[in-house]
Amino acid sequence: MVRVGIIGGSGLYELLENPRIVRLDTPFGHCDVQLGELAGEEVAFIPRHGTSHRLPPYKVNYKANLYALNMLEVERIIATNAVGSINPALEPGTIVIPHDFIDMTKCRDVTFYDGETTIKVRGREVSGVVHVSMTPYTYCPEIRASIIEAAEHMGLGVRDGGVYVCTEGNRFETPAEIRAFSILGGDIVGMTGCPEASLARELAICYASISVVTNYAAGVSGAVKLTQGEVIEIFSRKIQDISRLIEETIRRIPKRRECPCKDALSEYLK
Ligand code: HPA
């Protein structure tokens, strides 16, 4: 059993020293997972876009990635996401630990429970129509608290809370879209947080995100062109902080789960 899994976003393609790569065949396609040591324990790492950033957000096989971690019996997932800031108070370089999301994606495969496939979660079968709850916590409160505690220990400023808006991409947003998301209550915008977070919930795996603001979203700081180069550059300046934050977080995540995430499927388990 591997307790903790990390899903690395744009800019985070390596995290573990001397990882061994294990190919896992899931009912949704295969997934290459890196296994190695971090913070004194074996952890699993998946670079979301592939090791050389080949996969655009809409092509990421979220279900295979999450199911592969489920096959390893991962209980806790820490994800990293590059984001634009809708809220002008969040300047590029800010690290946000979102507490909620708005899913604005349009054509993604959003559920394991299609009424046909039988899913195995920690040795027990789940099938049929399953509606997991995203309340009382959209993101795992225990992982979020551990990230915030770790950041405090490091003297690293992070923003506790924010609403993550996930767009389909593949283009960046228009200024009108960003204005609309702002009115809806969004703070940050990215293309990869959904359906990843809810797929984790569908497997009763705890999940939280470390979101790194790489740019002001479209129209927030005037009419400037957005580029992926800028996203990668700002993220790469933060890479050491993020890697250490992940390590310090792993040390602090309680070994025993007391959060509601673990009970997400309790009414459906056979
Ligand atoms: N929009 C969507 N996704 C992003 C952005 C953005 O401005 N920046 C980094 N990922």
TrEMBL record:
Binding of phosphate, residues: S10, R48, H49, T192
A UniProt-annotated Pfam family: PNP_UDP_1
Enzyme class: transferase
Recorded GO MF terms: S-methyl-5-thioadenosine phosphorylase activity
Catalytic activity: a purine D-ribonucleoside + phosphate = a purine nucleobase + alpha-D-ribose 1-phosphate
NCBIfam families: PRK09136.1 (NF006599)
The protein's assembly and partners: Homohexamer. Dimer of a homotrimer.
The family this protein is said to belong to: Belongs to the PNP/MTAP phosphorylase family. MTAP subfamily.
Designated name of the protein: Probable 6-oxopurine nucleoside phosphorylase
Species of the source: Candidatus Korarchaeum cryptofilum
